[in-house]
Specification:
This protein is an alpha/beta fold. It is built from 21 helices and 31 strands. 41% of the residues are buried. The chain binds adenosine-5'-diphosphate (ADP) and zinc ion. Zinc ion (ZN) binds next to loops. Zinc ion binds next to loops.
Length: 716
């Protein structure tokens, strides 16, 4: 033995391979093991890598890399915990499915500098845990079988009594009484989970899905296993937090990507040292989980589960299924309006579908009233963005002490401006997008690009000809202003990413509305998310058409989901709610199916058969190649060549569509072109995906292409 060891490591980079390093055995107290984190140099920079192969001689030989080219490691990364096998396994699965490198997933899971655990552990003082740790140490050291058995028994006893304590404290099953319908759904979920399948719970809003999740969670924790509870949006976790804390005061750990370094580290340390129920957004999938018994994916159809940029471009729902598989955990997906993908998986028998149709408080569906804004305008029935009809409805509602939520899918005062003289619409010089007007506190306003975030001064004059600029249309800010003028006595608040820049402000608004301290809430789609606002009796969507007018085969389905969800926000208790839709396309089928009652399964069947007819997902797999390049000529040429290349490489049944420009085809000075690849879902799918990824890689290398090509699997 020379004492020199060869290892392979994962680096937080977009690399198609895992670099080799060496170290001298006697330079470390003990040999490195899989998952250890080490500091290494790569291409002139220092990184923290993860050891994946501890004796990599054969691998190095196979790769034809001679010893002389292998650099020594810099040293172990002090204070960083070992990565578990399960974590690395998940990274590899995500990378394979979403066509990126495991290193990119590692980078997302451990953003540099964010999970430094030094100094945090000391803050987590759990007497029980310390005792267990001591016993574990003794067990490891005990040479004699009988001594070891004694320690093991002692440790198990401590664990058991800790569990019983929790159950006795009411953190267990007590306090959750299910209705007969809930009980039935609950039992069916358990059957499906027992059969080793994911369960899809389709339950109308207010049916009490959350209660069922909590019961399942209580049972899992009582059985000594951990729970991951996922929500699409941080804002939702806040309301849920209080509800969960009532049942599990000791075990709850909230996690999301907006947390500070210290809080993240605390969360990571907590779930390493305690029984836990982790509540979080998609990034909570990459916590150092262990011993998971149950994963809940609430509002599973929500597009926010998908990460668009950067890689890994993963969907939290599918990734949760991978994680559950790795841990042998049960998984429950829930929604009032499940995704077509999940419903399809039920149809083919991969998932089990459980329907919950009764509302817990027996409220009936809110009525739907559709107001044709073009017809109203002709009759002088519009005052600004509001129809007189809607104004009356709002007054009636407020008079009765009810609350109102108004949805408008555009933040800003005015989404665009136009010059009255020359017709010019001011655009962002760096993006191919109109600038929107935002009011500032001093009343002067500013122009904001919603694509790159740049802010420009506003003088009210056209930069081209000096004419007057006129606001076109109304965003949430203007609607808030109009509402204040129309309903002078009402307390009005606005919820969008401008008004709620900080999580704290957002929380205040949501809490205030839930507590009845706000009468009218104006906001973007966040107001439609799954909040429990018990006093809400009227919801209204203004310019609903913006939801439909997208060139995407899923626009209608998405609009329907959003509107269904918004409708579910009102009339959650006994009183019947009202849902008002202002639109210029009152005959659109989406509104028809909304007004036609809750036959959502029929609408779903229709959507599914359309998808089948056109070979869209879930009947095929879509992968987008997204090109970004500062040079317009080059991107046009390259994207056309890439289409040719891919059409040639991908045989039988694959479709390559494009290149085409997205609606906004230039952002921050970079031109964007898309190529859509549709692969049939058959035996070749796996190899076609790999071939696609390889072809794109080879293409960029061969042409020495300096633009950027990203692959986006299952884009939303
Ligand atoms: P969903 O998540 O399906 O929209 P929720 O779980 O939020 O429904 O339930 C709707 C309302 O009914 C909530 O206010 C909840 O507290 C109440 N509720 C539902 N099930 C129960 C139950 N078993 N016991 C007491 N209250 C319940
Ligand atoms: Zn811009």
């Amino acid at each position: 033995m020379t004492g020199q060891r060869l290892i392979q490591t994962l680096l937080p980079l977009r690399l198609g391979w895992e670099p080799f390093y060496s170290y001298m055995e006697d330079s470390l107290p003990s040999p490195l093991v899989e998952g250890d984190r080490i500091r290494v140099e790569f291409a002139g920079k220092e990184y923290v890598g993860v050891v994946t192969v501890t004796d990599a001689r054969k691998e190095a030989e196979a790769a034809g890399i001679g010893m002389e080219r292998i650099k020594p490691i810099i040293g172990p990364a002090e204070g960083l915990d070992r990565i578990s096998r399960e974590e690395i396994k998940l990274w590899r699965q995500v990378a394979e499915y979403y066509l990126c490198s495991p290193g990119e997933v590692y980078k997302a899971a451990y953003p540099a500098g964010k999970v430094e655990e030094e100094g945090v552990k000391s803050r987590i003082k759990e007497r029980v845990q310390q005792r267990i740790a001591k016993l574990d140490e003794k067990i490891a050291k005990a040479r004699r079988e009988d001594t070891r058995a004694r320690y093991v028994a002692e440790r198990d006893e401590i664990l058991r009594s800790a569990q019983n304590d929790r159950a006795a404290q009411g953190s267990g099953l007590s306090g959750i009484e299910l209705s007969a319908a809930q009980q039935e759904a609950y039992s069916r979920i358990k059957e499906v989970l027992k059969a080793g399948k994911p369960a899809l719970l389709r339950g109308v809003t207010g049916s009490g899905k959350t209660e069922i999740y909590l019961k399942l969670a209580a049972e899992t924790l009582a059985g000594g296993k951990n729970v991951l509870y996922m929500v699409p949006e941080i804002a939702l976790s806040r309301q849920l937090e209080d509800r969960i804390r009532k049942h599990f005061p000791e075990d709850l750990q909230v996690f999301h990507s907006g947390m500070t370094t210290a809080r993240r580290a605390e969360a990571a340390a907590f779930i390493k040292s305690s029984p836990y129920l982790a509540l979080g957004t998609r990034s909570s999938l990459f916590l150092p989980h262990r011993n998971i018994g149950l994963i809940i994916v609430d509002e599973e159809n929500d597009p926010s589960y998908k990460q668009d940029n950067p890689a890994p471009r993963y969907n939290g729902r599918e990734t949760a299924i991978m994680l559950a598989g790795i841990h042998g955990a049960g998984i429950v997906l829930g929604s009032a309006t499940p995704s077509l993908e999940s419903l399809y998986n039920c149809q083919v028998g991969r998932y089990g579908l459980i329907d919950l149709t009764a509302r817990y408080f027996h409220a009936s569906d809110s009525d739907v009233e559709i107001i044709d804004t073009i017809a109203e305008r002709k009759k002088n029935g519009m005052i600004g963005s509001f129809s007189r009809k809607l104004i009356d409805r709002i007054r009636e509602c407020l008079d009765k002490g009810g609350q109102v939520a108004i949805l408008r899918e555009r933040r800003s005062y005015s989404p665009m401006l136009q010059c009255e003289e020359c017709g010019n619409i001011p655009k962002c010089p760096r993006c191919d997008a109109a600038l929107s007007l935002h009011m500032t506190d001093d009343g002067r306003g500013k122009l904001v690009c919603h694509y790159c975030g740049r802010v420009y001064g506003y003088s009210g004059k056209c930069p081209e000809c000096g004419g007057e600029l006129k606001p076109l249309g109304a965003g949430t800010q203007k609607i808030e202003e109009e509402a204040a003028a129309l309903f002078p006595g009402a307390r009005i608040a606005r919820l969008d990413s401008d008004s709620a820049r900080s999580g704290k402000r957002e929380e205040e608004i949501i809490k205030g509305f839930a507590a009845g301290d706000i009468d009218i809430l104006v906001g973007t789609r966040i107001v439609a998310k799954g909040f429990d606002f018990s006093g809400l009796s009227l919801v209204a969507v203004l310019r609903s058409d913006t939801l439909l007018a997208q060139q995407d085969y899923r626009a209608d389905e998405r609009a329907l989901h959003l509107l269904e969800q918004f409708r579910g926000r009102c009339g959650r208790r006994s009183e019947k709610g009202l849902f008002v839709i202002q639109t210029s396309q009152p005959d659109h089928p989406v509104y028809k199916s909304l007004a036609g009652g809750t036959e959502s399964s029929k609408t779903t069947d229709k959507f599914l058969s359309e998808r089948k007819l056109f070979g869209y997902p879930p009947y095929s797999r879509v992968i987008n190649a997204v090109l970004r390049d500062r040079n317009l000529k080059r991107i046009e040429l390259i994207s056309r060549e890439l289409v040719g290349e891919l059409s040639g490489t991908l045989g039988g049944g694959a479709k390559v569509i494009g290149p085409y420009s997205p609606v906004v085809d230039k952002v921050s000075g970079e031109n964007i072109r898309m190529i859509r690849v549709m692969l049939p879902k058959d035996k070749r799918l796996h190899s076609s995906k790999a071939a696609l990824s390889e072809a794109v890689g080879r293409f960029s290398t061969d042409r020495k292409y300096i633009g950027h090509i990203a692959l986006d699997v299952d884009p939303v």
